[in-house]
TrEMBL record:
Keywords: Aminotransferase, Transferase. Pfam families: TusA. It comes from the Bacteria. Gene3D superfamilies: TusA-like domain. Residues 19-43 form the UPF0033 domain. This is Aminotransferase. The keyword Transferase applies.
Amino acid sequence: MSSRQAPAEEAVQPPALTIDALGKKCPIPIIMLAERINEVPLNAVVSVLADDPAAFTDVPAWCRLKSHRHVASHELPEGGWAIHVRRNY
């Protein structure tokens, strides 16, 4: 699976919160994100670290359903992705 990048102006903001869901099977990464996204201010970025292939597509789909923004997904050197989500509300 390839890395998906958003425009550079969105990708440069460092995450306000990182959720380590490495080793967890879906839907756990999404549940962890849903439980914690309100901990960050509006327009802040949350990074979800996940290595379950389902999370690569399910987290962006959750963003569309919940009106948050999938900013980018970056491959991690040790495997998996850092999936960046911007809190919209």
